[in-house]
């Protein structure tokens, strides 16, 4: 990955890490369904505009009609459901904590692919799964029994339910990945993104209208809506697809490891969220487990390497 692509990867991680900040700001005023409906609606309009500007609208619409059902399923599993679950979680959890739980998405993806697509799970990947979920437990424990004055005053039960919602959102992403691989292979990624965002908008619109807040919505909340829709959804998807095209999917997916860093950073800087040593340690455990489960960290034959090095040195 060249320096330009690497910089784009960090910008993408900053944008997706910022989504947890914007959700935390907007969900209190707007509520779960209205905020997420606005997010996917603005994102869909942005992506439709990009298709039109690139002259790909007509073939994209044709594909969307042919693949309407798979696009609807992915729209629910990859956008509508997880976005709402994360928004519900952030009524209790901080933006930083939620972004760390989001990093378990590849763990769920590996489990679903093993159960559904018969992907192989090596002992190293199984160990990564165990380590990653142990990190989540440590993180939730830190939040449930935090005594810091800046910590949220939520009960342990509310914290546990919020964490379960965030885990369910991450699991939904994992199911969506396998479903996409099985039913939408070969479809242009921008078409998939536009179709799924449009489907998610249609699904969430009735709920948004029903649960629309009776009171006035603050300017901060509207700003969060724009940030979520334009920057964290429309623009971020465009950058992600560009990275997949120029650097490959394996490298583009490494953004997963950077998102929690920015999620914690933005929450601490703009919302004065608590960052404890326990939280930082749990985040590190989750990321190590995810790296093992996804194959980013592979077993290195240290003994053989050292013997080879000794042989080379003896011959020198």
UniProtKB/TrEMBL annotation:
It is a multi-pass membrane protein. Keywords: Membrane, Transmembrane, Transmembrane helix. One of its GO terms (cellular component) is membrane. It is found in: Membrane. Residues 9-140, 162-293 form the EamA domain. It comes from the Bacteria. Pfam families: EamA. This is Multidrug DMT transporter permease.
């Amino acid at each position: 990955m060249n320096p330009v692509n690497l910089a784009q990867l960090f910008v993408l991680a900053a944008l997706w890490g910022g989504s947890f900040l914007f959700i935390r700001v907007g969900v209190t005023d707007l509520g779960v369904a209205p905020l997420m409906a606005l997010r996917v609606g603005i994102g869909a309009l942005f992506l439709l505009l990009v298709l039109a500007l690139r002259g790909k609208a007509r073939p994209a619409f044709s594909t969307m009609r042919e693949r309407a059902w798979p696009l609807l399923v992915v729209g629910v599993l990859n956008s509508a459901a997880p976005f709402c679950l994360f928004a519900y979680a952030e009524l209790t959890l901080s933006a930083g904590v939620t972004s760390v739980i989001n990093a378990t998405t590849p763990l769920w993806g590996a489990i679903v692919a093993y159960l559904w697509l018969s992907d192989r799970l090596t002992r190293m990947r199984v160990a990564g799964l165990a380590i990653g979920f142990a990190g989540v437990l440590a993180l939730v424990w830190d939040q449930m029994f935090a005594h810091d004055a800046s910590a949220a005053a939520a009960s342990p039960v509310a914290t546990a339910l919020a964490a379960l919602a965030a885990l369910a959102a991450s699991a939904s992403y994992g199911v969506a990945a396998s479903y996409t691989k099985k039913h939408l292979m070969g479809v242009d990624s921008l078409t998939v993104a536009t179709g799924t965002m449009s489907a998610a908008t249609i699904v969430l619109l009735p709920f948004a209208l029903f649960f629309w807040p009776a009171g006035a919505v603050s300017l901060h909340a509207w700003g969060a809506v724009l940030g979520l829709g334009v920057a964290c959804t429309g623009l971020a998807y465009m950058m992600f697809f560009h990275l997949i095209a120029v650097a490959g999917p394996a490298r583009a997916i490494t953004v997963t490891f950077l998102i929690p860093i920015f999620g914690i950073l933005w929450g601490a800087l703009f919302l004065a969220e608590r960052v404890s040593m326990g939280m930082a340690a749990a985040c590190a455990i989750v990321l190590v487990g995810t790296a093992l489960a996804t194959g980013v960290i592979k077993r290195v034959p240290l003994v053989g390497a050292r013997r080879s090095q000794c042989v080379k040195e003896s011959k020198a």
